[in-house]
Specification:
Strand order of the largest sheet: 1-8-2-7
Radius of gyration: 23 Å
Oligomer: single chain
Largest sheet: 4 strands, mixed
Number of helices: 8
Structural class: alpha/beta
Distance between the termini: 38 Å
Low-confidence stretches: none
Strand content: 15-25%
């Protein structure tokens, strides 16, 4: 399945929903497959970090869970970025450009200067694996007001905090250069690396998932998520929740695609993972 070349496919995470529902359908149609109690949940707003804002863990009732959220077939993940969203507001002083000398403070140019002071090699286009980044995702404004929106990402918690401190130091510099209150930083943490919750006591979840992949002929590949899932927040809420692949590739863009064979194979993985003997 591919896009038409003008928009994304939406496999993230329609694919996960389809695979979960298809696995449930298969288990209902094959009562001879013994399994324990299973709970299913579908959350909205995962891409903005709000998917489990109102998730009722007590009502859900499970002790462990998996998200089925992105990744090439076979990927198995229990590490993700620590993530924050940041916005920098710039307040300028506009005046007729013919009379601007020593009077005008151009908010749009302050925004450009702020971006120029970010580490140029620490962007999504220049990083991989465990390397963190700053991602400028929106710039807008004029001489009077401007705004830069960006994402802060790093797997290492100390480096993550250092990234936020760097933004603050740049804003402090601009306020010394152009005057107090000209630049204002706003940061909101979104989620944290679930490794801190999974690794100490719940690595059996990774081993069981790996065995389920192998049982249906797929070699699992444990990799860090260069993003996040609702499982990260759920893990910090008390529900250990690593992530399984969906089989899709190139998410969030016009080159996104999903092999139908991978979609079907992930249904097999989920059915295998649910088998009672795998949880004995």
């Amino acid at each position: 399945m591919v896009t038409d070349g003008t928009t994304l496919l939406g496999a993230d995470d329609k694919a996960g929903v389809a695979e979960i529902v298809s696995a449930a359908e298969y288990l209902l149609a094959h009562p001879e497959i013994a399994h324990g109690p299973l709970w299913l949940a579908f959350t909205p707003d995962e891409e903005v970090g709000a998917g489990v804002d109102h998730f009722d863990l007590e009502h859900f009732g499970a002790e462990y869970a998996y998200t089925v959220d992105g990744g090439a077939l076979g990927e198995l993940e229990f590490e993700n970025f620590n993530a924050a969203n940041a916005g920098v507001l710039f307040r300028g002083r506009n005046i007729h450009p013919g009379e601007g000398k020593d009077k005008m403070v151009n908010a749009a140019l302050m925004a450009c200067e702020f971006v120029s002071l970010l580490p140029p090699a620490e962007t999504p286009a220049h990083t991989e694996g465990y390397e963190g980044f700053f991602h400028v995702c929106d710039i807008k404004g004029n001489e009077t007001h401007a705004m830069v929106s960006l994402l802060i990402r790093d797997h290492d918690r100390q480096k993550f905090e250092a990234r936020k401190e760097l933004l603050l130091s740049i804003v402090d510099y601009l306020n010394r250069r152009y005057g107090p209150g000209r630049a204002e930083l706003r940061v909101r943490d979104m989620y944290y690396n679930m490794r801190e919750q999974i690794e100490p006591e719940h690595m059996d979840l990774i081993h069981r998932a790996g065995d389920a992949f192998r049982a249906v002929g797929v070699e699992p590949k444990v990799v860090p998520i260069r993003g996040g899932t609702d499982g990260a927040r759920l893990s910090y809420m008390g529900l250990p929740c690593p992530n399984l692949s969906t089989g899709g590739v190139n998410f969030h863009g016009v080159h996104e695609y999903l092999p139908v064979a991978s979609l079907r194979k992930m249904v097999e993985v989920l059915v295998e993972l649910a088998r009672a003997e795998n949880w004995a």
